[in-house]
Amino acid sequence: MATFTPISRVGEFGLINLIKNITDIQTDSPNLKSDLLMGISDDAAVFKPTADKVQIFTTDAMVEGVHFDLTYSSMQHLGWKAMASNISDIAAMGGEPRYALITLCLPQKISVEMVEEFYTGAVFACKKYNTLIAGGDTTAASGNMIISVSLIGEADSQKLVYRNGAKVGDLVCVSGTLGTSHAGLKVLMREKRNFLEKSESFSPNLEPYKPALEKYLMPKPRLDIAKLLTNEVKINSLIDVSDGLASEVHHICRNSGVGAEIWEHNIPIDNIGRNIAEEFSENIIDYALYGGEEYELLFTLTDENYAKLESLTSDVTILGRIVDASKGIYFIREQGEREELTPRGWDHFKENN
Length: 353
Fold this sequence. Notes:
By secondary structure, the protein is α+β, with helices and mostly antiparallel strands. The protein is 37% helix and 22% strand. The protein folds into 2 domains: 10-159, CATH 3.30.1330.10; 163-340, PurM-like C-terminal domain (Phosphoribosyl-aminoimidazole Synthetase, Chain A, domain 2, Alpha-Beta Complex), CATH 3.90.650. It contains 11 helices and 13 strands. Helix 1 (7-23) runs parallel beside helix 4 (112-128) and helix 5 (180-198) packs across helix 9 (271-279). The relative contact order is 0.15.
């Protein structure tokens, strides 16, 4: 049986010291360490901005029962994902992450060991993506666990990319594949139901679904593609796919004052996602359009710049074309039927998500 040490036993200061010990080993980057003048030891963190860079700020909250379920999300996975979602936001601006602040609201069911596991996962992500946890806060919670991460990044002002730069005639492109993350979530939710309905002796076989589970539980922010897009070619708009492809296309179009055509036959799907959708007698294209939590990059650029990008990576796909706003935002089915592309991705304040 796993050890369960109540946080009350070590107290707030003991917990902070434990967190500091874990985060002390989070990076090998001498610049990040030397530029952090004060970390988890004072009222606030202090860092030295890099000369000739602009600062990028982002924040993201995760609430138990809304964004994660402790039945099938380990604390290490939560630590990774909390960092990864913010790092993805920085990548989607053409920047690089630097320093993070993490706030945890902890109910009594969360132990010292669970907090250690959370920070182990967060530090793992920081080491992978050259980021430092510079501080944060811990507080008791009367209900569910809440995680909030704020992240500071940097970019050359000439390399910043916004959502609002898409131009008529641009190609609409995406990195990686889509739909797999939602497929992984579907499997986890099904196995939870089976566990609750059958008995505690139920043991799911998750090995065949491992790539999809990893895509959902440990999403990989696409800093690699972001660096190619900002350093090697010129792109006009950029966003990460966190709320579903349909919603992100709408974000770009609304902010840029344009329309778009997205072609069903071009949406990149992998075999594991397709197979899982078939198990559920559902359409993998719906997963791609509305599932979310992919953290791939959606961007627009000219044909000429795409030709250059294509010579540098095979991990991007043309999804469609930016058109005049008067033509609307349409999804073109494989048989040629046109239908309005509605933004049915995740909306925190919409009933029956």
